Structure formats: C-alpha cells, structure tokens
What does this fold into?
Amino acid sequence: MRIWMIGAGYVGLTSGTCLANMGHQVCCYDISAARIAQLERFDIPIYEPGLETAMREAVDAGKLRFSSLLKGGGIMDADAVFIAVGTPSGRDGSIDLSQVMTAAQQIAPHLKRGALVIIKSTVVVGTARRVRELIARERGAFDIRVASNPEFLREGSALKDFLSPDRIVIGADDARARNALRAIYRPFEKTGVPVVTTTTGNAELIKYAANAFLALKIGFVNDVANLCEMAGGDIGDVMHGIGLDGRIGRSFLMPGPGFGGSCFPKDTRAFAATGRQFGAPQKLIETLIDRNEQRKVLLARRILKEAKLVSGSRIAVLGLAFKANTDDVRESAALTLVPILQQAGMQVAVHDPRAASNARRYVSDVKWASNPYDACNGAAAAVILTEWDDYRRLDMARLARSLSGKTLFDYRNLFDPRSVTRYGLRYVSLGRPAAIVHQRAGVSSLDSWDRRVAAPGHA
Ligand code: UGA
It folds into this structure.
C-alpha cells in the first residue's frame, strides 16, 4: 500500500519505518524542511535503539522516503495517510488538538477519493469523527474515511513493540475503513497477533485507559514501596509474590522516582480532563497524578534529610532521562529533583549516558559530568534516577572512593544492598528499609534513620 505518515517525530518515524520494512511504500512527511533534510542524511533527532539501521534498510530497499511537501511530494497517490503529530497538554490538562486539526485541514484538498486517514496521535474520544467532518467540510464531500489506530510503543523498545505487539487496535465506524486499515496490518494477523476491531471512539478510549491503567500500576507499586519501608517489608518480594497472579501480571511493578515521559503524565491529565468533561470524574487517576508529582518532591527532600547535607554540599545525580534507553527528559524525575536540591543550597553534578544534551534546555547551574565517577567526585551523596545499564555495571569500589560522603540513594533499586554496603556505603533504596539492609550486611541494630522512618507520619 502507498502510505503517508504526517509528522516525522518519534511515533511517525518509528511507525513509518516499520510499515516500510513490512513492505508498504511509505513517505514520512514533516512540515519542517530542515528536519526532512536531516532525516535524508540519517541524522536522526531522537535516540531509539535500532531505528537508524531499520531506516537505512527501508530506504535502501526503496520503501521509505521523506518529504516536506504534500502536493509536491505526491500525497494524492496515497491510499492511506496516518496523522502522527503532537498532542500537547493544555493548561487544564486537556489536550491541545490543534496540530491534528491543522494536519487534517492541510492534507484534505490533496487526498484522492476514497483514501483512508488514520489517527495515530493520542487523542480524546470523538476526535476521529471531528476530523472526518473537518475533512468533509474542506472537500465539500464525505469521500474520505477516517479511522483510529492508537500506538502502544514504548520509547527505547519501540521497534520491538511495533513488530511484536500484544494487540492491534483497529478503530473504524464503517466496513470500508475497517477493511482498509486491517489490510495494512494483514501480515500481523497471519502470525496470530490479536486484532481488536471496534469503533473509533472505543479505540480512542482504549489508548487512554491503557496508559492510565499502567500508570496506576506504577503509582500503586510506589505506595506499597512506602508501606514496605514503614513496615519492614521488601518491595521486590512483595511484587514478585503478587505478579505471579496471572490477573495482576509481572510487568510494570518496579518502584521508581515517579513516572515521567511524554505519555503517562500527559495522558493521565487528559484522561482526568475527559472524565470531568463528560461528568464521569476519574478520581483514581486524579489522585494518582497528585501522588506521582508529590513523590518526586518527597524523594528530593529525603536526600536532603537522610544524607545530612549542609548548604554548599555537592550531590551527584545519575540519570536525567525519564527511563533507560531514551534521550527523552520530558517530565523526568531529575527535572523536579535537581531544582529542589539547588534551592536547598546544594551544588549539583549530573550525568546521563544519552540525555544530557536534551536536559540542557531544562537544567542549569550544574556540573555536567562525562561519566558517573566524575559526577560523584567529591560529592556528599549520589542519587540514581534512571535505570541505565551503565549504572547497573558501576564499579562500586571506585564510586565509593570518588564520593566524599557515604550515601548512595538508588531510586531504581538496581543493586543487591550487600553489593553496595560492603564498600562502606550507606544504601538507601525504595521499599527496602535500611534496617533490613544493615541486618543483611551484618549490623542488626536500628540506627537513627531507621527509627525515624519507623516513626508515624513518615511519607
Ligand atoms: C508508555 C506506554 O508504556 C506505551 O505502551 C505507550 O505507547 C506510550 O506510553 C505512549 O503512549 O506513547 P513510555 O512513555 O515510552 O511508554 O514509557 P514506559 O516504559 O511506559 O515508562 C513510563 C514511566 O513509567 C517511566 O518514567 C518509567 O520509568 C516508569 N515505570 C515504568 C516505573 O516507574 N515502573 C515500572 O515498572 C515501569
């Protein structure tokens, strides 16, 4: 099929590349001529493992090209046009659909009769129908079909997620649109991937409900981790024990410094806003949003309290990306923690294997370290915020030598506590109280911090 992808951002590029490697003839369009020129040189503006190789393969096979022109690029020959532009948060948490609507308006006059427009961007319920009406107004006829096909790609594993999906959601309000969209994904159906065929409205709701539910899982784990700290439990064992229940599942049960990224924070806000708009308040999600933001602040304060830092102390922050294997820092824990540490008078040194250049837009007055040991050099404490493999492989003896203080805060639970405490470091992780850490390390009595966390009122 001849497919166009409107928006050569993260979703458009990864989806367009994968569709091309499935055998479709794909053109990725972006309004920015500079971005298209960059892509033609394989200078890819995002870090996504495997993307460059996959793009080169598709281009070499003559299946993928790029264009910043609609008519000039030949969009009138397209059988299907995906809209994969941004849907940023508005002030009240609802999403701003202007990029989707503008894209629809711009492509409308150029489409061939009977073409299929597919919304890939994450949009609120009712958007596909609005887009269909807008295109019909522009063309003076309802001769273009509009479908909804939400994506479930995770940054860092997007190609794998595209090629081995848990399911494909086909949202269409008529048989022709449904059949045309199914035809694009036919190779997957043959391999037994479940295909959910439903209305456009349901498809739009599925996307938000999926992200809201996954975010709830993380919020729940983080709250249970707090309880483990107070009650002397171990979050790893507790989550292993509940995850084996097939109804709960084992994934997405890792405690962390609060979820971030371009999707969960924005999508939970939009889901809550949609609930308010339709008079069906999503109180669980509203609470989750608050808890998640509070968590980032409380974990920053915990560093100041537990490491007994004095003004002017240096703190090493390891990890600026919102999770590993991406250079994306949007709504990452670091963006909340670093300013709080700075406001408390701390000198902050930061390191990230991939995300430092993106973080420069948001973080200032820090020391930019080229490796984690350099960041820790002379620091009173270090905090790990991203679960990069580089940090899992840290030489703990070297790290302990670099630090002038002795506390390592691991907000991703990367280590067995003993592998840290044996180097004389105090190890503060999530949902694993220091009391247990010290017992395992051969010290049985509670120290003052352990008594404090055991005291009522500790958040
Ligand atoms: C998320 C969804 O997982 C995708 O299915 C969806 O397609 C995508 O949003 C989207 O809507 O475009 P992504 O934002 O790339 O993908 O990242 P996730 O891997 O879901 O992680 C989100 C946040 O949750 C990160 O901050 C991560 O560190 C945190 N997390 C995740 C945890 O704290 N614990 C976990 O067990 C899992």
